């Protein structure tokens, strides 16, 4: 990338930050965001790597992408245990989860796309490969990687309808950036074709499937889920209705539905997991005003004696949604009644949860199509259909078990994307290092 173009981007970023500074300040004061990692983000002062082991830098924007890396990291450790794996993220929630989930790897905030910051970060890390989870097209970062001879790969690549429409409008610029990418491991054929239309090199684009199938746990008896069942005092007779990755007003919808059904179905429990941590207190206020018995997940401890207040659980912790799905019998996947475009429905499907979601799931269109094709999930158009779905699952358990079983079988049949992705990633590193080190 030319020096002039790099500094043009620098100027644009500075203007954007200046314009957004009131909102950034408000978010920092109100939600604690943007308070950390200034040296890494603005100056590229990420941890200095020592030693000469082959190194792979994996970048995940936030919580969803951080979770997504789990299977890739595991397979890297198995295939090349001597390689060093470092992880960057952008958000505070993602950073906190990565530090907790991958404590045996260096974790740091990714520098913002200022030319001086990304160049310094690359010099300090000295990676043999830079991996971007799903899609992060930052021109200065990719340009600096190319200048320093670092291959760049996008794994679990996806382009939503909205993202694709936006990129098409600036295709010449996007094409210039995509030409710097050495590998695009796309989730499906539609995504692969979109990358090609935007200018990616044909030899770089491969269809590997979705890593989310591999990352989905199918065993309800895993230690984390067992622990949560114990903490929440969920008995074998209880039926857990879980509203996961919710946005407003989906929590209120779930609460009202529980109010209608709790008297008729005394063993019904409700778990609500908001998508964003900054909404935990907002949802807690909603629950407090409802007059219904509830408790925060963060207050549950091993010694707690079950009280009526645990009939509804607000999950106000980060990184636990996957394990909570393992406690559920019936599930609603949030972000699907609003403008978000849905959230990951593979986790409940993998556990064999009778799953439904609203009509707005364009971010997961391919996965939704696969689930609907095998009759492994149900689309509910409104709150009335949602209530009908939950009632049917409660009154016709054989129907719910069949629905859930078909979803779980689909997930099992689609696994293997991580192995296919790793087979494409390893040569990108091994071409740069002596064979005796690579092995």
Q: What's the CATH topology label of the largest domain?
A: Rossmann fold
Task: Give me the side-by-side strand order of the main sheet.
Answer: 3-2-1-4-5-6-7
| Class computed from helices, strands and strand pairing | alpha/beta
Give the CATH architecture of the largest domain. 3-Layer(aba) Sandwich
The CA-CA distance between the termini, in Å, is 33 Å
Q: Could you state the CATH homologous superfamily of the largest domain?
A: 3-Deoxy-D-manno-octulosonic-acid transferase, N-terminal domain
Rough outline: globular
Largest sheet: 7 strands, parallel
> Count the helices. How many?
20
- Please, what is the average pLDDT? 91
Q: CATH top level of the largest domain?
A: Alpha Beta
How many DSSP-defined strands? 14
Assign a percent range to the helix content: 40-55%
| Unreliable sequence segments | 304-309
| Cα-atom radius of gyration | 23 Å
- Domain module count: 2
Strand content: 5-15%
Describe this structure in words.
Helix 16 (365-373) links the parallel strand 13 and strand 14 (378-379). The protein folds into two domains: 36-216 and 417-430, 3-Deoxy-D-manno-octulosonic-acid transferase, N-terminal domain (Rossmann fold, 3-Layer(aba) Sandwich); 223-414, Rossmann fold (3-Layer(aba) Sandwich). The chain has a seven-stranded parallel β-sheet, with helices on both faces. The protein has a seven-stranded parallel β-sheet with strand order 10-11-9-8-12-13-14. Helix 17 packs across helix 18. It has helices spanning 3-31, 38-43, 63-79, 92-101, 115-125, 139-147, 161-169, 171-178, 189-197, 211-215, 223-231, 250-262, 280-290, 321-325, 346-351, 365-373, 383-395, 397-414, 417-430, 435-438, and strands at 55-60, 84-89, 107-109, 129-133, 152-157, 183-186, 205-207, 239-246, 268-274, 294-296, 312-314, 330-333, 354-357, 378-379. It is α/β, with parallel strands linked by helices and 439 residues long. 49% of the residues lie in helices and 15% in strands.
